[in-house]
Recover the amino acids of this structure.
């Protein structure tokens, strides 16, 4: 699986703090860099009633709501078990998708549903879908993803949400020893091939979204650590630091970030409500939003 493919978003739009669309030029927002995610036109291969994702190798039912109604987390596993027992679509390897697997389908440019442009799926529900991944801090809760707007949150297992089984393996295989290489002013992630600014160059106070964007411009003007191409990470790059088996913080082992704050701004707008931008909450790894004018979240810089 090509990790880098999923570090890009498909976002091409830019918005100010009032939620009004603006020209992306010199905005330093995610959309200013253009959609660098590969074209999705040939991504999905329809095979009768199932769809193979050529990017991940995973197989999804073309019908995103086979159960027809919401199920509890336990009922979801029972539904998948029955699919395998009956060899639904001539397969017996159906499973609940992990958080990473279901998140791989998410678009950050499309809403209702937040699925890639020209996707082939039908009968989808613009609400929450269960994953098979438990919350490490709260084992009575599991992760779900909002297909209408792309939020990634956790819910009580006795709650009822939609189910979208998946088949296939190999997507979760990306691991690497000694992943992070620390230098004087930054650290390099050998898995994602990204460099993160570290230490005293980061603003230790919470900022509004625009203040974070402006701070990036200052960092580049000053050529901090010798470079002038720093930017706010997009939400997928922030999510790449997460290990869902950990909490408080839910960062991957060995991450040498000097001081991990409770939440970080991304450069990615929420298309569901454009007065908000995507934020990574570090206690559990929630992918939520922050109100842009509020001085509530912190800055990370990436190149």
């Amino acid at each position: 699986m090509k990790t880098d493919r999923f570090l890009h978003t498909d976002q091409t739009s830019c918005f100010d703090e009032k939620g009004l669309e603006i020209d992306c030029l010199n905005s330093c927002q995610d959309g200013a860099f253009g959609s660098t995610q590969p074209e999705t036109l040939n991504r999905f291969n329809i095979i009768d009633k199932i769809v193979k994702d050529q990017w991940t190798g995973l197989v999804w039912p073309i019908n995103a709501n086979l159960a027809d109604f919401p199920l509890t987390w336990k009922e979801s596993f029972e539904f998948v078990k029955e699919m395998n027992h009956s060899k639904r679509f001539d397969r017996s390897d159906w499973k609940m998708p992990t958080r990473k697997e279901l998140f791989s389908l998410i678009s950050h440019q499309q809403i209702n549903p937040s699925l890639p442009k020209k996707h082939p799926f039908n009968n989808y529900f613009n609400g929450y879908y269960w994953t098979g991944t438990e919350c490490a801090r709260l084992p009575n809760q599991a992760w779900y993803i909002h297909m209408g707007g792309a939020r990634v949150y956790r819910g009580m297992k006795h709650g009822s949400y939609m189910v979208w089984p998946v088949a296939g393996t190999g997507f979760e295989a990306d691991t690497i020893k000694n992943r992070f290489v620390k230098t004087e002013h930054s650290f390099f992630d050998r898995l994602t091939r990204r460099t993160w600014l570290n230490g005293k160059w980061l603003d230790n106070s919470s900022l509004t979204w625009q203040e974070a964007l402006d701070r990036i411009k200052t960092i580049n003007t000053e050529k901090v650590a010798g470079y002038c191409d720093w930017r706010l990470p997009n939400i997928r790059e922030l999510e790449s630091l997460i290990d869902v088996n950990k909490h408080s913080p839910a960062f991957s082992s060995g991450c040498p970030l000097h001081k991990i704050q409770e939440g970080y701004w991304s450069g990615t707008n929420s298309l569901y409500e454009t007065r908000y931008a995507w934020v990574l909450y570090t206690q559990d790894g929630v992918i939520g939003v922050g109100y842009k004018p509020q001085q509530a979240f912190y800055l990370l810089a990436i190149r």
